[in-house]
Automatic annotation (TrEMBL):
Keywords: Endoplasmic reticulum, Heme, Iron, Membrane, Metal-binding, Microsome, Monooxygenase, Oxidoreductase, Transmembrane, Transmembrane helix. This is Cytochrome P450 6j1. Its cofactor is heme. SUPFAM superfamilies: Cytochrome P450. PANTHER family: CYP9F3-RELATED (PTHR24292:SF54), CYTOCHROME P450 (PTHR24292). InterPro entries: Cyt_P450, Cyt_P450_sf, Insect_CytP450_Detox. It comes from Lygus hesperus (Western plant bug). Belongs to the cytochrome P450 family. One of its GO terms (molecular function) is iron ion binding. The chain crosses the membrane at residues 6-22. The gene is CYP6J1_0. GO terms for cellular component: endoplasmic reticulum membrane.
Length: 235
């Protein structure tokens, strides 16, 4: 009995290793350069372990690809193609934009009626219909948004001049800038977090981004759901 269980365990380990070895050669079989993935994590281990942000992980992948115009990597076991050359990026974002309708943001749009109205969360045919609806309004929106960003930038410059010679933490300065821009654009409220750091909006936004037991537990739960989604869809 023990030998049977041992043999079964060895066989399962071999099959799992064989599967992941075959899967990680996905880009090799297609002839694309790629960054060597890790077992289970792909190329985002530090993101899963909350050591780095997804932006930092992507930056490292970008640098590892060197001078190559494009390259592949894995987000868990999901193959992702990263474009680097400007001509390829323009091809996707301009010339063939209608052909790229997938969305990397995975949410249950049926769970919240408001999410159904967000074009940033749409994919496929739904995205195309919403794009045709929103496109005429985007130019006007960009003009108003640029004005908001400029106003917040002027407040930041004024704040920096008033603290000349003093130590300023860049991360905190960036968070104040982003908070003011989001508040101005999303809810039409001028915060001026540079001179009033204890406004309620700032405090609430800090609770979202600061890591603690509650936020880490929530991230782990959402991450588990995402893993289930990926592996169930590929099964």
């Amino acid at each position: 009995m023990i030998w049977d269980l041992l043999l079964l365990g060895i066989t399962l380990c071999y099959l799992v290793n064989l599967y992941f070895s075959w899967h990680k050669n996905y880009w090799l079989r297609k002839g694309f350069p790629f960054v060597e993935p890790l077992f289970f994590f792909g190329n985002i281990r530090d993101v899963v372990l909350m050591r780095k942000t997804i932006g930092q992980a992507y930056k490292e992948i970008y640098e590892k690809l060197g001078s190559k115009p494009l390259g592949g990597f894995f987000k868990l076991r999901e193959p992702i193609l990263m474009l680097k050359h400007p001509d390829l990026i323009r091809k996707v974002l301009v010339d063939e934009f209608e052909s790229f309708q997938s969305n990397d943001i995975h949410v249950r749009r049926d769970a919240n009626p408001l999410l159904k109205l967000n074009p940033l969360l749409a994919s496929g045919a739904k995205w195309r219909s919403m794009k045709s609806l929103w496109s005429p309004h985007w130019d006007k929106a960009l003009v108003s948004q640029s004005t908001m960003v400029r106003n917040v930038s002027q407040k930041m410059v004024s704040f920096l001049k008033s603290t000349s010679g003093e130590y300023i933490e860049g991360k905190e300065l960036s968070r104040k800038f982003v908070s003011d821009v989001i508040a101005s654009w999303a809810i039409g409220v001028e915060l001026d977090s540079f001179h009033n750091p204890n406004v309620a909006f700032r405090i609430m936004s800090d609770r979202i981004v600061n890591r603690n037991f509650k936020s880490t537990s929530l991230f782990s739960w959402l991450f588990t759901l995402r893993i289930y989604q990926i592996y169930s869809n590929s099964g």
